Amino acid sequence: MSAAVETAEVVIVGAGPAGSTLAALLAARGHDVVLVDRAAFPRDKTCGDGLTPRAIPVLARLGLLPRLQANGYRAIHGARLIAADGDTWHMRFADYDLRLPDFGLVVPRLELDELLRQHAVEQGARFLATADITRPLHGPAVIGVCGRRPDGPLTVQARLTVLATGAAIGLLRSFGILRTMPIGINAVRGYFAGVADLADTFDFYFEHDLAPGYAWIFPVSADRANVGLGMLRGARSGPPPDLRARLADFMQRQPRLRHATPLGPLKSYPIRIDFPACPVVGDGFLVVGEAAGLVNPVTGEGIDLALESAEIAADAIHVALALGDTTAHGLRSYARTLHRRYAGFFRGVRVLLRLATGPTALGILIRRAQRRPWLARTIAGINLGVASPWLAFSPRTWWELLRG
Q1: Which residues of the chain are in CATH 3.50.50.60 domains?
Q2: Is the pTM of this model over 0.70?
Q3: CA 368/CA 149 separation, integer angstroms
Q4: pLDDT for 180
């Protein structure tokens, strides 16, 4: 059977938030874009479904925020951090001058990803579903990708290839970018009805049995929630923990969840938090979103960084195509911008995760933050990715923690 051949200026592999946003931005600038995904849409994606205030400005720039708000998705105005002893800090986004909107959203990925994909098509991108891309197409550099669709082999020839494949590393391995799954987060989540005490908050629980990690309850509607937990992968010796059993135990301990009924099966998933461990550009290709390890290691949230990296990539690709240079050298502005914006944050957070995220330390932070406005703002900023994690080690922080 002969291979179907498509041609484009840019082929983007993966129609999640990063891939679809980038496809929309490039198509809106007049570029010929093919967006491919191995799934047929709409499709579910295992995720916590939280959109932090950091994601809101990008959605507004895309013109999609009014549509999301009109659809009645749950607006979130803060977070509750619950320590192992039950002590709770209610962090309202509006209370801190973080130069962000004072709200986030909870949007199931089944709906968010389809909205973003449709937007890309409306802007002029072509979408190919059920396309399982397995390897690069090589010339002097990467000149596209090869794979299969249900009706036979597929080749997409392009001046530039973008990998937006999330946590999966199969295609990254074939491009020579990443050879093994790095240390990250393993997570499990489910949807539940009958959840009590749902407010306009992201709720995070830090318990001894969940360390190093946390559980969450994110409200989807008046009594329906996305409930899950995540634990750092490789942080403990011995066999990996049974996340489903841990989640079941957590739900039994929580009065809010004891009468909750599942709306479907639990689903597990890995989260990449390893930026900047692997290259993000090469001759003829570029990597965006979680495929580059861009997920906040503190919260496990990656949609906001996926959207931001797509905007950065769109600017770099537009210039590279105009100059006729899609080599790694021609794309270096993208790598430099990502490194300048995110590398210091990720390195600092990894140090912070090793030293100060046990249940006891977090309990102290939560109690102090309720009485120390400067400390509260610092913690809120680190959680949302807009304050340097190195502030956690400053003399001012230690003074706020230790003074009576």
Answers
A1: 4-44+57-72+108-182+273-348
A2: yes
A3: 56
A4: 84
